[in-house]
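Re: export button greyed out
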Amino acid sequence: MTSGPLTFALAALLLPAASFLVIGLLPPLRRSGRPAAFFSIACALGAFISAIVAWNAVEDLSVVRVPWLPGVHGPFATVGILVDPQSASMLLLVTLVSLLVQIYSAGYLHDEPKPALGRYYAFQSLFAFSMMGVVLAPNLLQLFVCWELVGVCSFLLIGFWYRKPEAARAALKAFWITKAGDVGLLIGIVMLHRAAGSFDLLQLRFLADNGRIPLEGLGLITFCLYLGAMGKSAQFPLHIWLPDAMEGPTPVSALIHAATMVTAGVYLLTRLDWLFVLTPGVLAIVAWNGAFTALLAAILACVQTDIKRVLAYSTVSQLGYMMAAIGAGFASAGFLHLLTHGVFKALLFLGAGAIIHAVHTNEITAMGGLGRRMPHTLVVFLIGTLSLAGVPLFAGFVSKEEVLAAVWTGHFVVPFVMLLVAAFLTAFYMFRVVFLVFFADRRPRSEARRPTIPDPVLAEVGRRSSVVEHAHDPSAVMILPLWVLALIAMTIGIFFTMRPPEAEFHAPSWAAPLAVAVALSGILLAWLTYQRGLVSADTLASIFAPIRYAALKRFWLDDLFLAVYRGVLLAFSRVVGWVDRYLVDGVLNVVSAWTLDGGDGLRRIQTGKVQDYVFALGFGLLALIVWMGVSW
Amino acid sequence: MSLSAYLTLAAVVFCIGLFGTMTRRNTVGILLGIELMLNAVNINFVAFSRFRGIETGMVFTLFAICITVAEVALGLAIVILLFRTRRTASADHVDWLKG
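Workaround output, generated via the alternate export path:
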């Protein structure tokens, strides 16, 4: 049964690709909308089933490679797929989330025009395919190609409502910021090939394990690779694209945040942990930056009033956790958190989508008391929130505790403290959302801000009261994926709480109680502040006024990027433009002017009279004869 | 008579033809000059053929005469057309290709 997992993994990979090609190449199907959606969902279902089979069948490591680019000694590059337990579980996550997101989208984008719906599902299929390509890639070159495809798909889907200027801008921003990291990745891959002579992951691993990769300069290579992961996985300072990516449809956010796109960077580092282990300095950077990102994003999440932005910053924060664990040298802990986070973050985003669908606004201050009207949504959202907060029996508990223990074991004390604070803030801001959205409903109307229009299709924004009164649970097609994810999150959580996974390290015995205590105190503070009103939110705001102000300004990072763009990039472009316009073009203009003048002068010998030409002919003949006579 | 006498004759005829072509103002005169040059060549052909005993030259001459006839017909047609459209047969007035 060696070829079994490979066959099924290949099927899982190719089904979405086929779906994309069929929907993309058959305009009648694409424009028909719903049939395209059903076709794409059917392919995603097939891919999911194949992934389950592959995951069940996978024992060790199996790989298939086909020569791609010919080289002097054997093929220069190959294509193929590599299935091991790691990629199989990742495959399972990607197919699961993409399937549920596609089903959910059928309800969420119900009112979209038909051609737009077909386009949406074509991009969804391509997105799933590219991410699986990253997951299954046996070599870095193929991984890079799929990595870029993921970037393109995120651009296409974030900018799905491309007529909306913010969406188009956000799509471009996501594309360019991640591209900045991707340049690093490409340079890293090429430099690694120069140093080790291979793109192939297995060969590279063999070389690395036998100490045959030169350590000199390896730090730069791994740092370049980390740059790529930094862009995709939204690490400081390249995290600024992720919150803006909220302009896309909510199911797209769920897909980007849970299974595809942002997980790619963490996955890359997990995949290459044997390489990063060789450069402890870079690993320390990864850990410190991860912890810093986690804390920074958690602070930012506390001041957001847009429900999707809160979730976006929480994703950045959780990605920081994963990176910190990888940086501490325990990639398995980070990977476990990646998997559990994928499930409950998809759940949270889809739940947020259900809320937005019901109340037609993103502002949590404009909501309140939705719990009674949307009981299903309340329960699943609560499950997701408890998972994210790291409460025992829920999915995020064990993985988060593992991350914390890993960072502690790796002797990163300050990052450990940062992560603890971030964990406290995570519980706080998530329950702030829960209380504000589902429970608290006693604030005067004037305090609620005027709701902004989230999506052009979801126009028709009423006043807050009518907004909340007409809210109800979404249709079955949207509730079903939510419950599936909630049950999976519960199952994972209970399973792991009962039987913790065997870690490569011994977690200190106080780690779990500490993590739980921190999470519970965060929940308690949110409850006191936003439910009981015992602690005034304004008091909290005034205590942390400087931080709050900085967080509201997004720590000036966006401004910094803009200033760099305006000050450095545009100035440089202006210089280059001047050189091109006056120096390069100047030389060309002079040459062309000379040519014109020369032609004008030579024009005069053409008299147009036949006999002048005969003269020239005769004298030419004479000259020829004389010359031949002389040279004879 | 020796070969060189024939060659001299041919050279003289050729030069007269070239001179006429270069100096005549009238297009018909230019055509006549061209005819003279062609026939000088023909004389060369025939003379060499005769003195070397190779018949190829004779055959070439016949071909050349045939082609010359066609060429003269074409040339005269051009002259007639020129006269019809421009009311002139002088080569000096035909300089529309002047640069």
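Chain B touches chain A through 13 residues (CB under 8 Å). The button fix ships in the next patch.
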